[in-house]
Amino acid sequence: MKSNTISLEHGAGGEVMQALIGEIILKNFHNKSAGSIGLECLDDGSTVRLDSFNNGCELVLTTDSHVITPAFFPNTNIGRLAVAGTVNDLTVMGAKPLALTCAVIVPEGFPLKEFEEIIKTMDKTAAEVGVPIITGDTKTVEKTALDSIILNTAGLGITDSPVRDSGLRPGDKILVTGTIGDHGISLMAHREGFDFDTDLASDSAPLWKLIEPLLKLRTPEGEPVITAMKDPTRGGLANALNEMAAKSGAGILIEEDWIPFKPAVSAACEMLGLDPLEVANEGKAVIGVKPGFEEEVLSILRQHPYGRDAAVIGEVTPDKKEVVLRNRFGGMRFVDVPAGDPIPRVC
Amino acid sequence: MKSNTISLEHGAGGEVMQALIGEIILKNFHNKSAGSIGLECLDDGSTVRLDSFNNGCELVLTTDSHVITPAFFPNTNIGRLAVAGTVNDLTVMGAKPLALTCAVIVPEGFPLKEFEEIIKTMDKTAAEVGVPIITGDTKTVEKTALDSIILNTAGLGITDSPVRDSGLRPGDKILVTGTIGDHGISLMAHREGFDFDTDLASDSAPLWKLIEPLLKLRTPEGEPVITAMKDPTRGGLANALNEMAAKSGAGILIEEDWIPFKPAVSAACEMLGLDPLEVANEGKAVIGVKPGFEEEVLSILRQHPYGRDAAVIGEVTPDKKEVVLRNRFGGMRFVDVPAGDPIPRVC
């Protein structure tokens, strides 16, 4: 680690954050596993195995803080982001959400009306997937100490077959559940006062009901059709694909033309020189699917409003841990692990 | 609610916070229970009941954010506070800690060396009770947006007999596991540069091993000897006793002379006009014990280093929800619900 203080990149979801986690957190936590997936897996959550479960079930535990600013943005607010983010972390682990926590840290002077609106939004978002919010914590700090509300949510789920981000095998198809880059770009546009197209809004959404039917799919040999799953939040699709490839020990070839983008996202990225693959999404999943089952998975996804734009975007290759993007003319480029999300504090 | 913005008292553990939670959070969360103890109980955590448990077991989920400043204080730091705080919330619910989460929010410029020291302290504190830290989250924000590191921990535990804070019955003895006021007063002294006695340090400690043996105690009729439990953090002993009395529908009579105080805490409180009963503790529990069992409980507590100063401080009365303090001359005064902890940001 070059500098001796924390920089913004240390929390931006890319390779600088990976280094911090590896060199400081994983090195110093000695007891970090309570089931088949522990902290060292750096998956979207970890599992807890109980003696009382003789059916192979495991609990899944996950947590996320949200420091987005401003707390209100087109269509919704930080409350939706927090609940959806934690539901999605459980979802991409293949776990049914059982319960959420809600810890708020609020600077003095924050309007009570906005506070109540955030709480109402959390309630509504949780209701979409039927998960109760059962415990919480409220802290306040001086307005000179913190610029906006912070939410932390933890989630408890249960699964009989955890989905890891390391399960990709050559030949698997790579799917996304919808358009890429909406959240980060809409936030940036809102924050900077850009006036793009009207269809540009955060995609923040809780995905459990969208993904649940996929978890039951089995091949004729009885193996799960879904081989790996991840939500492409901080560091965007580029980071999610690289993590999945590296952990699976495989390569991924993505067809640029197959990635669904909203026109406004493409236009904004071109104008501002941003790579939409590095921008955070908050209501999307990247899914590895056993070859031959992609059409079945797509048709299930497209029946749900959050999966209408689902698409196959590429496949897993035997190349070692590389993510390659092929454009329509056959040109190839590596998709690198980004240093972090190019737009700070969007989640 | 009089003002229309958040004030520091909204997060200070007293009656202003109770109003915020009641009028905004509980009112707007519609689905808030997954077991026998839900959010509306406002206990130290809530429970999750699973179909797979046919032995009456429940999971316990709890969460806490720590915004203490400075992050380092005599003997230890925010890392110990966070782990101990969450372990203790599980402990006073009667739940064995199974796993913790660790979410950090760090301002840019925070020294990496201090960050590592905090992580090491979390590891050491968790090791005292053998609980793994299995999942986490790292966020960074601009240094103008946040003044110091914030930690959030959530905890998952399991119990076959949850201990509620509402279980007091007239005649029960009220015990504390050690001296009162140490954490808040030591923090304030450190922060303000006062030079009190050398024995003044935070009491922050994980209490599971201290409390675990008590949970097995049964009366000859087979009832739990421990009837209620709470950790007197924000709002101090005054708040904890009032919550226990109100929820139990009973009164509590405390003998002032029986409350163990360190001399330095008494001296500081006298000098500064602070009520030590309203000051936060971070390594203590208030315990309701069935009459006749208090000596047995005391002797178990005193065998553990964290329980050496354990004492009976009073008993439960049939008076409706009142907490009364009797001094050595027989004079009585009500112990009111404090507006909040008189010393902000000590936890």
Automatic annotation (TrEMBL), chains A, B:
Pfam families: AIRS (PF00586), AIRS_C (PF02769). Signal peptide: none annotated. Residues 169-324 form the PurM-like C-terminal domain. It comes from the Archaea. InterPro entries: HypE (IPR011854), PurM-like_C_dom (IPR010918), PurM-like_C_sf (IPR036676), PurM-like_N (IPR016188), PurM-like_N_sf (IPR036921). Residues 43-158 form the PurM-like N-terminal domain. GO terms for biological process: protein maturation. NCBIfam families: hypE. Belongs to the HypE family. This is [NiFe] hydrogenase metallocenter assembly protein HypE.
